[in-house]
Amino acid sequence: MPTDSLQSPSRSSTSQNGAVNAPTLKGSEIFVRALEEEGVDRVFGHPGGAVIKIYDAMERIQPSYDHVLVRHEQGGTHAAEGYAKATGRVGTVLVTSGPGATNTVTGIADAYLDSVPIVVFTGQVPTHLIGNDSFQETDTTGVTRSITKHNFLVRDVNELASTVKQAYHIARTGRPGPVVVDLPKDVQMDEAPFVYPEEPGLDGYTVPGAAAPKQVDRAAKMIEDADKPLLYVGGGTINADAPEALTALARKANIPVTTTLHGLGAFPETDDLALGWLGMHGFYHTNMAVQNADLIMAVGARFDDRVTGDVDEWAPNAKILHVDIDPSCISKNVYADCALIGDAQDVLRQLLPKVEPKDTDDWLAQIDAWRADCPPYEYETPDDADQIAPESVVEALYDKTQGEAVMVSDVGQHQMWVCQYYKFGKTRSHVSSGGLGTMGFGLPAAMGAAFGMREGRDLDVVCVSGDGGFVMNAQELSVAAAHGLPLKIAVLNNNYLGMVRQWQSLFHEDRFSHTDLKPTNPDFVTLAEAHHCVGLRATSPDEVGDVIDQAWDVDDRPVVMEFQVPKEEMVFPMVPAGAASDDMLTEMFDKEAIAKEG
Amino acid sequence: MSEETLTRQQIRRKRKFGEPLLPEEEDGTEQEHRHIIAVTLENTIGALNRVTNLFSARGFNLESVAVGETDEPSVARLTLVTVGNDRIVAQITRQLDNLVNTYDVTDLTDAEHVERELCLLKVQYSSETRPEILDIKDIFRGRVVNVTPETMVLEVTGPNKKINAFIGMMEAHGIEEVARSGQVAMHRNLEYEPPNPLASTDAAPSANGAASDA
Ligand SMILES: Cc1ncc(C[n+]2csc(CCOP(=O)(O)OP(=O)(O)O)c2C)c(N)n1
Ligand SMILES: [Mg+2]
Q1: Average pLDDT over residues A542-551
Q2: Which of A321, A429, A433, B113 has its CA 20 to 30 A from that of B37?
Q3: What is the rounded distance in angstroms from the CA atom of residue A209 to the CA atom of residue A344?
Q4: What's the pLDDT score for residue A34?
Q5: Is pLDDT at A590 greater than 50 in this prediction?
Q6: How much of chain A exceeds pLDDT 70, in percent?
């Protein structure tokens, strides 16, 4: 039974910040209470020896947050990412030392590259055993140093509460990112008065807010002077909850908008000013717009090489105006002629009154002409009657959801098709692993997003995965089933590591080295059923709609829909890695031509 | 948009493709320079680790590092010497600034500053070479800190170039060991500046200050 001093504030009279009558608690209890004070509503975790005290404290305290027992710690970190991306809140993970901690590493690296706010708590061997190669000891702060925004090893129970406070503050503010807190077992057992600080008290850490006014004036002038302006919008816009301000700016000054993979959802794709996706698999008219623009205004985007290809040939005529909260992003890959360092929403709101309506009709007409020259790639329906065009599945999912869903994808060809064929119109409606490109991300991230929907937004959560990536974290189906999450999971089964096959086909003369999965690919329907989920399969185009309708009729557990798709289908258009964006544009549907470039 | 002025990206592109640059386009941003950067940070191994780790993780050059406590025991001061073009060095300072446990990052290179390094050098000597070695030591204002019948240890301080020259002079005599501390550096105030009573206390946040030279 919970004792008085252990109760959460809603249920007890313990004063919150009066150190005078602060209750003396064990480290494990302080941890649980600190999470409550922080307003955490869900923890994705997996127990083990080095966190067993914390799990015991949770059992005794019955905290205000829920704990989700994941089946693999990697799944836990991706779930926390999916939760964070779909809700804008910080995701929380709790795992044991050694293997528990190392299993989180991929998710932490993923969150680091994609600026996702998560806090990962790892158990650690007692402080007196650190460095002895003790049982289940890993130098977790050492291992995660270069893939975290910051990390902590808590050596003293008196620092535990303030470290939790700091960890959430760092993860959430500025350019968000993962934070690791390593908790030695003796610190969990020691006692200290529990006071949750109101301020994080981090001297060396500042968060940019608004941009310098002089820079804002310069930026407004650059926009005024430009004839061919283009907005290039990344995930930072969504992190800053700036899509509204961005849309207002684009519409006021008639500036066309192109989005990165993480920018999808920041600007309604049904808008006349929306150009869609740019970069390696971007559209012809979008890449042409980049190559001909005289001003590129990047908002929360980082000029990734999948976007720019050869930077020296990218956007040769454009001045660069860069809005970003992270000063180290400025001029990292491409020189910025003007930088506005600050929160994207604040900066856009500063800029908005200073920007006058512009006439960009000629420029928009030019872009339309390019679109007419080379319309977006039209996929073909496979000759084989029992094969389905993968792109048509994504279109059918859009028809079903009308964009009123959180769309989560794994990594591979299917991911690109989601970006190309699903019309994103809502912020935080697209969740994908972009920077790290982590296969196995999709299912657990969708699960995390679905938990997030319980705490606020009410949207369907759809996951599109490949047959290769799906099995990398398929164990999490059990977790989604245990919590009755109505996930809709589409597996586009081409019986291949399709994206690698595509590169082998284009650049390695059809030598399909170790990419064929067919001989022993699982039966996805029985795989789903074995995990207490519903399994459905469509093997011909006319079954697609039915299967999707059936899936949407289930509302008490996950549904896995397997779609048989041809292995030969490729993602087009394509600008080969490292090539200049305008090199390939006219020939980009031509396999021979692409192969020559690669 | 005016046609005459090229963007920095265009200048970079021209240089890469070997196209001739006009004199006013030679902004020197791609030229590599030696930079000396002072960092104050939390006085913990973890903080130091994060700084050095940044250099290997991001592939930056690191010529020397010197670190020690300041008058405030919880704060350490680190002096880094690195080589790179303006863009890389701007990256380095911003990445350092981004670290949670660094307080202040200053590139001293273009400012008036003093820099010093300490060098201990063990050199062989004989009765013939001894006078010359001691002469050189005097020219470099060094000191003898240890003598055995065959070797002596000399101590010299000075800017990096002076130390290099000193080591060069000793080479002919048979150097046994060299230990250098790495550079430390500090701003040099040129004249006394009286405190300005009108200076505003709410200075612009440093991150935005950085924006103006981006
Ligand atoms: C963990 C991991 N391993 C390997 C890769 C390299 N990789 C990228 S896409 C891909 C193939 C994905 O196959 P599948 O999940 O079936 O999706 P498809 O491309 O067929 O749609 C591979 C192996 C990766 N991104 N992540
Ligand atoms: Mg596949």
Answers
A1: 97
A2: A321
A3: 9
A4: 98
A5: yes
A6: 94
Among the listed residues A16, A59, A135, A455, the single catalytic one is A135
User: Are A133 and A85 found together in one domain?
Assistant: yes
Burial class (CB in 10 A: 0-12, 13-18, 19+), B78: buried
> Which residues in chain B have their CB less than 8 angstroms from residue A312's CB?
12-13, 16-17
Question: Which residue segment(s) compose the domain that A425 sits in?
Answer: 390-571
**CATH number for the domain including A167?**
3.40.50.970
Looking at residue A460, what is its pLDDT? 96
Higher pLDDT, A83 or B214: A83
- The predicted complex's ipTM stands at 0.81
A412 and A560 assigned to the same domain: yes
Give distance in angstroms: CA of A586 to centre of ligand 2: 28
Per-residue pLDDT at B75 exceeds 50: yes
pLDDT for B25 equals 65
% of chain A beyond a pLDDT of 90: 82
Contacts of A296 in chain B (CB under 8 A): none
Residues A366, A411 within the same domain = no
DSSP label at A385?
T
Candidates B88, B111, B87; CA nearest to B38 is B111
Chain B: give the shortest CA distance to residue A88, in Å.
Answer: 22
DSSP output for A520-539? G---HHHHHHHTTSEEEEE-
Q: Does A257 share its domain with A187?
A: no
Q: Tell me if A597 is assigned to some domain.
A: no
> Do A238 and A313 have their domain in common?
yes
pLDDT tens-digit readout, A46-69: 999 999 999 999 999 999 999 999
Asked if A419 and A554 sit in the same domain, the reply is yes
What domains, with CATH codes, occur in chain B?
32-111 (3.30.70.260), 114-185 (3.30.70.1150)
Which residues in chain B belong to E strands, given as ranges? 33-42, 64-69, 75-84, 102-107, 113-124, 143-147, 151-158, 175-180, 184-187
Number of domains in chain A: 3
Q: And the tokens for A180?
A: 């690791």
Tell me the one-letter amino acid at A330: I
A67 or B56: which leads in pLDDT: A67
Residue nearest to atom 23 of ligand 1 (CA): A497
- Tell me the C-alpha distance between A275 and A301, whole Å: 16
Q: Are residues A228 and A333 in the same domain?
A: yes
